[in-house]
Amino acid sequence: MWKGRHNGPIHDRFSTAIGSAKPRQVREKHEQFHCRVVSAPDASVYVVGVAHGETRNAFTAAWVMQVSFDPLLLALSINPQHSSYGLLKQSGAFSVNVLKKSQTELAAHFGQPARADKLAATEWTPGRAGSPLLRDALAWFECEVVGEHPAGDHILVLGKVIGGRLLDSEAEPMTYRETGAMDGASALFPEGFGDA
């Protein structure tokens, strides 16, 4: 299914990712998917993919979390000045690729400023809306934007999960702590709070 750096569209939902297993196997695979992937959005690290037409980008993010079971919703915090925000707004969709513990170089690569060849060094395939799905991720989700809310200098984007796949059931998700000072966030943190 993966042919080089870019492949044709893939249209899997997380329920079809478990194949045609028997009822007990289906339940076990759903439990495995939830334990390893759906519950992963906490202090993990992700590559968020966006696309509109033939323009695509992906960026490293840590502010992603599950906010609902029914429907399954994820929230993404994104700076509206980020070049990817415009693509997300135009397409109404994004992907969330869960990184593995050892993928700090990949996190650093996608943490760089946007440029035309950012996806060239990574094998990926477009999701339903064209958002990049990374072959080497632990797992991915495809999300359809269902709302957004201003949050200080960021925007909280709500995405309804419309597809997903666990790619490596043996891997552990990367934690934000493993990235160290990679994102430079410590320099943006306030020196104090209120009157303190």
Descriptors:
single chain, 196 residues, alpha+beta, 7-stranded antiparallel sheet, two-stranded antiparallel ribbon, 3 helices, globular, disordered N terminus
Task: Tell me about this structure.
By secondary structure, the chain is α+β, with helices and mostly antiparallel strands. The protein has one domain: Electron Transport, Fmn-binding Protein, Chain A (Pnp Oxidase, Chain A, Roll), CATH 2.30.110.10. It is built from three helices and nine strands. A seven-stranded antiparallel sheet has the order 2-1-5-8-9-4-3, sandwiched between helices. A two-stranded antiparallel sheet has the order 6-7.
SSE topology:
Elements (H helix, E strand, L loop, with lengths): L22 H16 L7 E7 L2 E7 L2 E5 L4 E6 L4 H9 L1 E6 L5 H7 L13 E3 L5 E3 L4 E13 L2 E13 L30
Antiparallel strand pairs: 1-2, 1-5, 3-4, 4-9, 5-8, 6-7, 8-9
How far the N terminus sits from the C terminus, by CA atoms, comes to 56 Å
Unreliable residue stretches: 1-21
Q: What is the spatial order of strands in the main beta sheet?
A: 2-1-5-8-9-4-3
CATH fold descriptor: Pnp Oxidase, Chain A
Oligomer: single chain
Classified by CATH, the class is Mainly Beta
Largest sheet features: 7 strands, antiparallel
Q: Give the fraction of residues assigned to helices.
A: 10-25%
The dominant shape is: globular
Strand fraction equals 25-35%
- As for the number of domains, it is 1
